[in-house]
Specification:
The protein has 268 residues and is an alpha+beta fold. The protein is built from seven helices and five strands.
Length: 268
């Protein structure tokens, strides 16, 4: 009886490994939805009862443009993001010599991604740069779903076997296999949640800037400020050199004194 129990556990574990290998490398190609609503196999008019599968797409992009008022632009963009049910995942501002720059990373519902791009284009004119990337993760998405379903079925079988265990040794063996299956399920579910988040919310990096005024008086002001800062740095540097300055002063004093005495002796 014990040998039969061990063979049953081993057989289930082997079948679980085989199903996992099948889902990772040998799964049939999913049927993708076409623009006209047909699947891969019924394009030629043949009937097909395989359900149409919605593509799982991850959209990411970046845009950059120049604006006249960076604060007003930031306020406008944030208002539009809120209107489209998105949120800001990161934001940074930089003040360079001739340019004020602001960067905003947005997570926006995938169905509103194109609306946000259109809003930026229509509001701020031609974008200086626009890069959009679309990744199709449909096959991975379906593969993970199939793997989770298979592993949960295997988990249920192990629970049934656990009820039949007669001693501690058998219980420990089944629980060991259950832990392995549960680890695979949790890992797959975590990956599936990650894909759902990436598919549901697209990412857009928005870079915008404004040029500073380069008037004559502004440049003169910068020059005066820079000159004063340089003078303060010079004075601070002298405080570090005072021992050397004393030595130089003493050296000059001794040289002058020596020359004066030499001239007096020569004249006498």
């Amino acid at each position: 009886m014990k040998n039969y129990f061990l063979i049953l556990v081993a057989a289930l574990f082997f079948l679980g490994c085989q199903s996992n290998n099948f889902s990772e490398g040998g799964a049939p190609a999913p049927q993708f939805q076409k623009e006209d609503g047909l699947t891969n196999d019924n394009i030629g008019g043949q009937p097909d009862d395989i359900p149409v599968i919605e593509r799982q797409l991850i959209k990411t992009g970046s845009v950059s443009f120049k604006t006249g008022d960076i604060q007003k632009t930031a306020f406008n963009i944030k208002a539009q993001i809120k209107k489209l049910n998105g949120y800001i995942s990161s934001e940074s501002s930089n003040d360079f010599d001739h340019r004020l720059v602001q960067e905003i990373q947005v997570r926006i519902p995938a169905e509103h991604f194109d609306s946000l791009i259109y809003h930026l284009t229509s509001t701020y004119g031609k974008l200086e740069s626009k890069n959009i990337t679309i990744s199709d993760v449909t096959e991975e998405y379906l593969d993970i779903q199939a793997r989770i379903k298979t592993k949960k079925e295997l988990e249920a079988r192990y629970f049934e076997i656990l009820k039949q265990a007669k001693n501690v040794s058998e219980i420990l063996q089944v629980e060991e296999q259950l832990n392995k299956v549960r680890t695979v399920i949790e890992t797959a579910e975590g990956r599936l949640r990650y894909l759902k988040n990436k598919v549901g919310f697209s990412t857009l990096d928005i870079y915008f800037y404004t040029e500073k005024s380069n008037s004559f008086f502004l440049e003169v002001g910068k020059g005066l400020t820079g000159g004063w800062e340089g003078f303060k740095t010079f004075l601070i540097g002298l405080t570090y050199l005072w021992p050397f300055l004393i030595l130089v002063a003493l050296g000059v004093w001794f040289i002058v004194r020596y020359e004066r005495r030499r001239r007096q002796k020569k004249n006498s």
